[in-house]
Amino acid sequence: MAKLKLALYWAASCGGCEIAQLMIGDKILKLIEAADIVFWPVAIDAKYDDVEAMPAKSIDVCLFNGAIRNSEQEHMAKMLREKSKILIAYGACACRGGIPGLGNLHDRQSIFNTVYRDTVSTEKNGNIFPQTLFRVSEGDLTLPVFYDTVSTLNQVVDVEYYIPGCPPEEKTTWLALEALLEGKLPPKGTVISHNVKAVCDECSRKRDIKKIKKIYRNFEIIPDAETCLLELGLLCTGVATRGGCGALCPQVNMPCTGCYGPVEGVIDQGAHFLSAIASVIDSKDEEEIRTIINDVLDPVGTCYRYSLPDSLVRRASLK
After folding, report:
1. How much is the pTM?
2. The domain 4-99+151-181: what is its CATH number?
């Protein structure tokens, strides 16, 4: 029986997904028995030209991690879509936009102004910004076009499956790979995870619908080991986040940040969490409610940390 051909690619992300793919441990030996890795720029010497030369649909499956931030990443997404029978959005950035997606609060020029001109550590040497083309005596030097808007993978190309997480847990990665190796893949469009319910469903902390008078930042209180973190006033997004991770963060007194994406059937994860916050505020006084809500210092970064490009809003308005 011929081995499967597997490709992996890294777009706009931190690189954690590349490490997560190795966290399957000795199961990687089982993977190698059944599949050959034909393209993985971070680990093997393979060039873009190699992929371009491959016949259409010659790659059985591609794990694509990272959002689409620039023209090179869009080109690779479209090329790997053409070459792959199955394209999987791997990790929060590919699935929902991830942390890079918070760039959608700004546009390209405002980001460039901050990075290359306005920071105190930047040498003020004539407002030099990256150029897509620069000619030197040896030839043309090029850079990808940096887009105003970060996109999820499925906003650029068709995607068969989604593996959530920042990065995905080892058991989530293996759940998908095992289904692939055994030929037991779920219906197209499935988010592959161990749980379709919320992280709260996996969390052992006690919930008794307490109301809160104050919202705390993580460093401001030391939570007990038993009470629901949201009911203690910590912004734990577990109520609005798909399970499958095993509620690892709440187990160590850290609020869930939402990296596994929305629970089944929810369109907008951030709006779902905002509703959850509103439900636990213990006040009917408009001024007091405003005071409590003002403790949320970064509403978008809190509620849409991994999902802004995938939300109903998608980005801040471009004027």
Report:
1. 0.93
2. 3.40.50.700
CA distance readout (Å), 44 to 23, 157, 182: 18, 25, 26
CA distance 317 to 107: 9
**3-class secondary-structure state, position 224:** coil
Neighbours of 275 (CB within 10 A): 12
Q: Which two tokens stand for residue 258?
A: 């939402």
The H-assigned helical ranges of the chain are 16-20, 27-34, 48-52, 71-83, 92-96, 108-113, 170-181, 248-251, 269-280, 286-293, 299-303
Beta carbons within 8 Å of 286's beta carbon, 6+ residues apart: none
Report d(CA 151, CA 251) in Å as an integer.
32
Q: Which of 285, 303, 280 is nearest to 212 (CA)?
A: 280
Distances in whole angstroms, Cα of residue 305 to Cα of each of 10, 204, 260:
20, 24, 11
Cα Rg of the chain (Å, integer): 22
Cα–Cα separations (whole angstroms), residue 201 to 172, 243, 245, 257, 309: 17, 7, 11, 16, 26
Res. 128 pLDDT band, cuts 50 70 90: confident
Each residue of 134-144: pLDDT tens digit?
Answer: 999 999 999 99
Answer for the pair 76, 97: CB distance below 8 angstroms, yes or no.
no
Is 269:95 a contact under the CB 8 Å cutoff? no
Size (the chain), residues: 319
Q: Please, which residues have CB within 8 angstroms of residue 24's CB and are 6 or more apart in sequence?
A: 31, 170, 173, 174, 177
**Bridge partners of 134?**
141
Instruction: CATH 3.40.50.700 in the chain: give the residue spans.
Output: 4-99+151-181
